[in-house]
Design a protein that fits this description.
This protein is α+β, with helices and mostly antiparallel strands. The chain is 48% helix and 15% strand. The protein is elongated, with a radius of gyration of 36 Å. The two termini are 22 Å apart.
Length: 631
Amino acid sequence: MLGLASRLRALPDAELRRVIGVRDVSTSGIHDFFDLAEALLDSRSIQLALSHLDRSTLAVLAVAGQLTSSGSVPSLNAVTSRLCALGSAEVALTDVARRVDTLHTLLLADHNDGRCIPYDAVSAHLATWPAQGLPGVADLATTLPPAVLAAVADTEIVFIDQLATERAFAVVSSIAELVNDLSREPARELSRGGLGLPDTKRLAAVMTVDVDLVAPILALASRADLLARSDGYWMETEAGEAWLLERTTARWAALAAAWRAALPSIVADILPRQAGLLWGDGLTAFIAWLYPAGGEWMLSQLTQFARDAELLGITAHDTTSTAGASVLRGDPEAAVATMATALPAEVGAVYLQHDLSIVAPGPLAPSIDARLRGLADVESRELASSYRITAASVNRALAAGENAASLLAFLASISLTGIPQPVDYLINESASRYGRVRVGNFAGAATAPVAPVGDNTVFLSYVSSTDAALLGTLAVDQTLAPLGFVRAGDGAHLLSRFAGDAVFWALSDARYPVAAENNLGEIVHLRRHQIARVITLVPTVDAALSLVEKLRVGADSTVSVADAWLARQLDTAIKAKQTILVSIAMPGGAVVDYLLEPASVSNGRFRARDRRADIERTLPLRSIRSITPAP
């Protein structure tokens, strides 16, 4: 422990913080470098570190420990020779040196003067592996890997790629629907995590997927920063808004890149990067062989990413697709090129029907789809999408700033069948009726309606109309009952305790010709579109940094590590009231052993009771050669 504590004390602060993080050291209960060394040499901490090492690195560690315990010099050449002898195969010295550097960085061994010396606690822990069913030194060095991953026939790769393309298109379309829907109606995140069942069912219906796929698809979109939590709700982000205007290939590329970036390097390095290779039992067996102490941890990592790989078309039927192989190789351009040749071509024209429906003969160009959604409701989202124009959807477009002329001009520019008379009539009629019902907020209103006498309710918004009969209809409409409308004192307004935008969209959904107005009575345009308000969180306290600062403050630079270690041993003996055998170097060079019961340590000296002479002695710490428990 003394050697490790000395090494920890000499590390730069940045390296010390990295080690604390990588080794997942709990900072509680650590007061000095000896406590930190003790925590790093704890069996649980060692096992955690070993579980993340591959078989070859573990073999180097085990052989180095074996050489050290037998009294041999664990030089890199000796370790290499021993590995070659055990495995009956050539092992490169450079490969051993690289793995020794990894062990040195993780503080599992000390690489010094061309030697790899594992810490005693690490070697002792490795020695217990065979009793736990884990491989020993010989097994680590000699057990051959399982058979190479199986490959499908070349003729089957065509079908794998076809299925992967279908899945890629499906998940891109589903995420587009998800992002669009959450921009209008965010989904609440439960306190325990995940979405509630009502929101889950709503989103499953919107995306036309099974309920079980909502959470994975939401995670995919979130990983690509298309969605984010804001005030406890999942909403669209600005990146998501821009993503919706990209072509299908660019959308898929963003999702695939986010998936690849989230892969831990330890997982990415073992995934098959050739098209047509199976990820099934062969890959599982290989992982269990490669990481003998961390199979469960590795498999849990792989399970999640393999599921997402199937959704994205990286794989199909647990087999790497051609585009997926390019993604895994870090070649997004090749992956996009592969997908571009397989995905259906986007179209820029639609068929307008007399029944007010709109049919797209293929996937619409994103810019056209985005504007069409403002004018019409999506009815089906398949390879050929369909939309329907309604009075409410036209009113929604008018509220966002469109007018009859702009809507008809847009439809004429994309229609292969002209503008059917029912479509023209509905748009013009809706535009003429738009604004017959007005909604405004009390805040800042110059002439606010007066509440009924005796009603102390705090009203936030009002509804007005020049059509008294229409206002009366609103007052008795049961679908609007949750708004709690109350007649104002002047009888010409309805009052609500809800904000104006909530009242506006409720009336719009109920198909009333509603418009929002400001405090001057001027129509203002609203858009049912919410962007996540992503707040940059105040960085939490860096526990590793705090611990490093604490260790530096507590370490006296004028006191050597050896003296600090002696003081620690003496302090432990004092607290335990333990008698110890202390070897003291006398001025003449002789070494004298005292049987002492330490009483205190201060100013480089310690005071103790001599149990043999029954007297009190005060001795300098620098004269101590060794301390051992009394027999």
